[in-house]
Amino acid sequence: MNNKPLPGRELTGFDDLLARFRTMTPKRRVVVVCPTDEPTRAVVEQCAAEGSAEFILTVEADKAEMVRELADRHRGIEVFVADDIDAAAALGVQLVREGRGDVLMKGGINTDRLLRPVLNKEHGLLPPGQVLSHITLTKVPAYSKMLLFADAAVIPAPNDEQFRAMLRYTIDTEHALGNPCPRVALIHFTEKVNQKFEYTLTYADLIKEAAEGAFGECVVGGPMDVKTACDLHSAEIKGIDSPVAGKADVLIFPILTAANTFYKTVSFFCDAPMAGVLCGTTAPVVIPSRADHDISKLYSLALACLL
Q: Residue 94 is inside which H or E element, if any?
């Protein structure tokens, strides 16, 4: 991503995210693959009704009628019918690749079936050598800021190159959302570098590179645990002197298991809203769970369009 900061203040919450999305010009063109589930259709219908985005819908032939009904009710919706669900996925990717769409979004299709054409080496959306990663934006009620974190969906155990990509994507996203100098916490269960955990050695390199300007305007600190990253009182008690401690905007997790557990924990126990986007592709890709509510899918779409 090569995002320029949006005019105005730093993003304050999901209502702010939606307000910015709805006032964007020009409107983004969203290609939705198989919008055959009710939450996805509800998002398309809402956005089309309020004119916040334009849509191209690709759908398998045996479910085309329910999708055509959307296009009949609202302007700004175009429908392409394919032979089957895999052909609909390939067509959606092709339309984005050709520049017909700005964002690709998953509807009622399994993620792996959509990612197959996205990751196709000849006709997909991931340039050679680029790192695919997933970022998540959330607002936890107990924390004053919005939090961006990675990677809860794609990279099992990041290597050095993948850690750098995760930093770039999250920092670029913060810049795009209006934060001129995001504070990034590199997460571990203690504040000590330990050779038994090789990623903590990588953390030391990342902090040095960030200080030298490798990731643009930002402050990177760690290792530190999540509580230290987000609670200034805990950091003061531990005697941790870091401009990131207690004020983190971004959390970079060392493994997918930790990030995904954090995702599921705060979303379930804290009822924290979430928005997630795939990065590294030539256009943002929204891959919400088919079980997600329509509001979560709307937030993810809004985030993708702002990027």
A: helix 85-97
Reference 78, options 49, 45, 56; nearest CA is 56
| Angle at 115 (CA atoms; ends 114, 116), nearest 5 degrees | 90
156 and 239: one domain?
yes
Sheet holding 285-286, edge to edge: 77-82, 54-60, 29-33, 103-106, 285-286, 274-279, 133-138, 147-150, 250-252, 183-187, 219-224
Q: What is the pTM of this model?
A: 0.93
Q: How many domains does the chain have?
A: 2
| Residues 32 and 157 placed together within one structural domain of the fold | no
* Tens digits of residue pLDDT in 9-18: 689 999 999 9
Query: How many angstroms separate the CA atoms of 242 and 220, rounded?
Result: 9
Residue 275, in any domain of the structure: no
DSSP string, 247-303: --SEEE-SSHHHHHHHHHHHHHHS---EEEEEESSSS-EE---TTS-HHHHHHHHHH
In order of 19, 120, 134, 291, the CA distances from 113 in angstroms are: 32, 11, 17, 16
Distance CA(280)–CA(129), nearest Å, equals 10
Domain span holding position 72? 14-128+281-306
116-174 pLDDT per residue, tens: 999 999 999 999 999 999 999 999 999 999 999 999 999 999 999 999 999 999 999 99
| Under 8 Å between Cβ of 6 and 173 | no
Q: Which two tokens stand for residue 4?
A: 């320029």
